């Protein structure tokens, strides 16, 4: 066994060690009250004693007693994902729908035993992953009779490494840092870095089609899955380990993105990389948002396949990298374990400069294998720090009257300018109606030759106690606009329960029927994560 | 309307203009008889008059009379795909299972009307594509009561071009050359070149997960589908046009590879390319097969993403490019419409040379936008001609006692050497038992960082009249070995009916149940191409 994961906080993004103190939050409340002239107080933080969790409604069979936990800590810490709503409810101590049992199987036989028990007894099963869902993907539904949350945290091993094919067989419960630690002695890395990297698992990434490090070319975790095993109430689906195949619709692609509604992914053969030896990194400023997105279109369409290719609008470029508020920032990075990347960077820079981007030659950082620093200095380094620290920042102020969240999508280039305008208009109106001193900004987290994946961030000052209602007003406007303007309700945050109304509009109705029919085969009693993606 | 496609031959690979004469075949028979000392005669070629097709068992409704054809030519020319068995049966005039009707709808409303009629009346519907299936994917099953073959040849238009996003909306019935002709005025190209390019359609490529030009990175047509429309007996599935999405399992991936068993793809938004301006091409010799596949592994794992990266074993390198019979040939090519590719070629050459590959500097052909020749000279050019001419070569000798076919697969690198040995051993034994003067060779048509897609070719002298039986002895041995050694039964030829026994072993049984359940929703009366992929 590797070192146990640090204990997840019952309310904060991250672990217990990431929790601010009540004193810190009290000070934050005073600052917010003074700065925005609103009434706000920091309530006492939730404790296990204060929660008074509903007693478990489930009797665990003796044979499963070792792995089926009903203590308050495990039930409370698996009550919520980490959506804005979850975080508000959690910090306010509203734990009204905890799971009845948290099962932590140590191997596949134990997973199978849990599924059989739950299928027979009619308990809902919720695969938890790392619990970082921001779309209510792991919340026990309020109307479920009894809920067993399935936590694969004990199944966190890299089981096999095939260095020749550059692939590794990894258990689904491995968290990002843990699997990287195990791959490192082989000089290999998955290099899948969703923003939740530290607090999410391989199984969760696959089940939700996570978006990772590779900002172009192989963007989603989908492309790194060589084969997988998924346990369903009806049995196991294991795909053959293959570099490619044309044998019928891909079985993997049914499991990838299924969000626990068909079964639980227990392990996968993943395509891994040699650790990068060659790197290059640069940040280019563009005089405006429009010039910047026209520039990044040209870079991505050249198919140089940078590992990092991101774009920050003027608001984000100012906040994250200190630019002047009119300029946009394009971040471009290449990496390889096998071949120097300088030539690609030179081509990308030439294209970006021709499109109006600016960067000094001495700020184009190239490491040709000597370990020269790249990507951790200047504006790029500033952006990187901001990216990694982002999700935890709300711990200090959550529930203190501020309303802030992100939403992400993808859209083809031809529709992008009108899409951006429509989304900003609709969300701006909703923000005007709900929040004071709001801001709205956008970045491209990933880019494709045929379109960007825009990621919007909004924040503002609402009313303490009304944050959830205010949030939903804005979310509704944002999601309605995204769908009406042709985007997807999610590029990499998944659907869960929160995105259902818009996912239902987006996905073909006959596909939902096909998915429902598949579910009836694999999960005949309908116990697997009901309410995500489809209704029974 | 564009120029009508030339008339498909009822028996030969290609069109009527590709048919050799009886005199040509008679001369070929005499050469074969003399060279191999066997008895062989060229029977008269099949003609519509000689076939005596079974009368149609279907009465076409008056409303569909314009598009539902029952004449002998259309029925005979849509009786077969182009597998070895099909070609033997066709040249021998064994047309015992023709479709009863060939429907050629001109728009989606007419497709819908045909599906509704057939679903109500219980007629089997077989989407025909270009009819180039080599796996019995388009053959009317012998036990079907009545069969309507659906030919989308009249729906062959590029409907919309989005030059900004580099995407085009194309009707599924467009053949390769036809869609390229329509894209050319926009300076765009799909550049999907399966070996059947001239005789296959976009819809067929998508329904069978065709493998194309891009020998690395985006290998299958799957990656070029931005969205699609599929008509099923239960209605239409249309996916949203998006550059990427993480919203649940991909609806497109259910249709891609469904081989007509769920519905018929009517159109798709495809990701297209600018026509290449920058190119580079080279052929490297390696002293042996083993050194060559070890070399190509290193090239592909560097992720330089060449558009062409193929490997010919010593037999193929000798036959196609005149090498010495011990050497292998690696073909590597880069192309781009946006940026010079010289730097990538330099890196690929350096890696390949370090791995033991040889090429003179002046045989590395680079076109930096001036139109210098690349890829049509020397050994690479010889290979290219052989590739394009390949499938048609059998027209002269089919049914004259020779037995020849190809089979293709994919396997991870760690298992590859043992896989190759096992396949050659098993197939060699079967060839020994059935054919005289046989040969067996292999090339990699596509390569992945985690494994190659090997493509084997066998041929030899069998017994006229027994070719089909002899073929199946060899096919059985080959497919058994491929599956036992861990490969896929097909990398890009599809499953159809011919690969069913091995596909059934390869794909997870629960996935088949899910697929069957999906089919019941989309095709409740089970009319769509029964027998491919699954049994009802």
Point out poorly predicted stretches of chain A: none
The CATH topology of the largest domain in chain A corresponds to Uridine Diphospho-n-acetylenolpyruvylglucosamine Reductase, domain 2
How many structural domains in the coordinates of chain A?
4
Instruction: Count all strands of chain A and give the number.
Output: 18
Largest interface, by Cβ-Cβ below 8 angstroms: which chains and how many residues each?
A-B, 95 and 95 residues
- CATH homology group of the largest domain in chain A: Uridine Diphospho-n-acetylenolpyruvylglucosamine Reductase, domain 2
Rg of chain A is 23 Å
CATH domain class name of the largest domain in chain A: Alpha Beta
Architecture overview:
- The structure is a homodimer of 536-residue chains.
- The two termini of chain A are 38 Å apart.
- Helices cover 32% and strands 20% of the residues of chain A.
- Chain A is an alpha+beta fold.
- The model of chain A has no long low-confidence stretch (mean pLDDT 95).
- In chain A, the strands form four sheets. Chain A has a seven-stranded antiparallel sheet with strand order 15-12-14-13-17-18-16, sandwiched between helices. A five-stranded antiparallel sheet of chain A has the order 5-6-10-8-9.
- Chain A folds into four domains: 135 residues, Uridine Diphospho-n-acetylenolpyruvylglucosamine Reductase, domain 2, CATH 3.30.43.10; 117 residues, Uridine Diphospho-n-acetylenolpyruvylglucosamine Reductase, domain 3, CATH 3.30.465.10; 92 residues, Alpha-Beta Plaits; 104 residues, GMP Synthetase, Chain A, domain 3, CATH 3.30.300.
- The relative contact order of chain A is 0.12.
């Amino acid at each position: 066994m590797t070192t146990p994961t640090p204990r997840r906080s019952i309310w904060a993004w991250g672990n217990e060690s990431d929790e601010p103190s009540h004193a810190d939050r009290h000070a934050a409340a005073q600052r917010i009250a003074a700065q925005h002239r609103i009434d706000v107080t920091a309530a006492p933080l939730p404790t296990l004693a204060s929660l008074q969790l509903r007693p478990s409604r489930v009797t665990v069979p003796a044979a499963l007693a070792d792995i089926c936990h009903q203590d308050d800590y495990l039930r409370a810490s698996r009550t919520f994902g980490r959506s804005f709503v979850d975080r508000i409810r959690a910090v306010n101590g509203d734990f009204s729908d905890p799971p009845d049992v948290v099962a932590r199987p140590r191997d596949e036989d134990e997973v199978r035993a849990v599924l059989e028990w739950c299928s027979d007894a009619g308990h809902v099963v919720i695969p938890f992953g790392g619990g970082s869902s921001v779309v209510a993907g792991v919340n026990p539904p309020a109307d479920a009779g009894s809920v067993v949350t399935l936590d694969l945290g004990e199944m966190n091993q890299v089981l096999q490494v095939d260095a020749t094919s550059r692939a590794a067989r990894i258990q689904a419960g491995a968290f990002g840092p843990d699997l990287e630690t195990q791959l490192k002695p082989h000089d290999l890395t998955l290099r899948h870095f969703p923003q939740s990297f530290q607090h999410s698992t391989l199984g969760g990434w696959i089940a939700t089609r996570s978006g990772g490090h590779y900002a172009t070319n192989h963007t989603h975790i989908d492309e790194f899955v060589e084969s997988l095993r998924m346990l369903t109430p009806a049995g196991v689906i294991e795909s053959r380990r293959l570099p490619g195949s044309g044998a019928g619709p891909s079985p993997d692609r049914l499991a990838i993105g299924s969000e626990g509604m068909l079964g639980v992914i227990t392990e996968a053969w993943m395509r891994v990389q040699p650790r990068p030896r060659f790197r290059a990194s640069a940040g280019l400023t563009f005089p405006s948002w429009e010039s910047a997105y026209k520039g990044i279109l040209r870079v991505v369409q050249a198919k140089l396949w940078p590992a990092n290719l991101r774009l920050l609008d003027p608001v984000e470029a100012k906040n994250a990298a200190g630019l002047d508020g009119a300029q946009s920032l394009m971040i471009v990075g290449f990496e390889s374990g096998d071949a120097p990347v300088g030539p690609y960077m030179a081509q990308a820079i030439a294209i970006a400069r021709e499109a109006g981007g600016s960067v000094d030659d001495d700020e184009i950082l190239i490491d040709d294998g000597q370990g020269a620093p790249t990507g951790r200095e200047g504006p790029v380094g500033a952006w990187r720090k901001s990216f990694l620290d982002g999700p935890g920042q709300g711990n200090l102020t959550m529930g203190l009257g501020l309303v802030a969240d992100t939403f992400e999508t993808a859209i083809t280039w031809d529709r992008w300018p009108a899409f951006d305008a429509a989304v900003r208009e609709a969300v701006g109106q909703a923000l005007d109606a709900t929040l004071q001193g709001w801001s709205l900004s956008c970045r491209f987290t990933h880019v494709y030759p045929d379109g960007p994946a825009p990621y919007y961030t909004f924040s503002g000052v609402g009313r303490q106690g009304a944050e959830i209602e205010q949030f939903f007003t804005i979310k509704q406007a944002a999601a309605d606009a995204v769908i009406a303007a042709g985007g997807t309700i999610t590029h990499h945050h998944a659907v869960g329960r929160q995105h259902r109304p818009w996912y239902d509009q987006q996905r073909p109705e006959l596909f939902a029927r096909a998915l429902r029919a598949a579910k009836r085969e694999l999960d005949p009693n309908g116990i697997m994560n009901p309410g995500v993606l489809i209704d029974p």
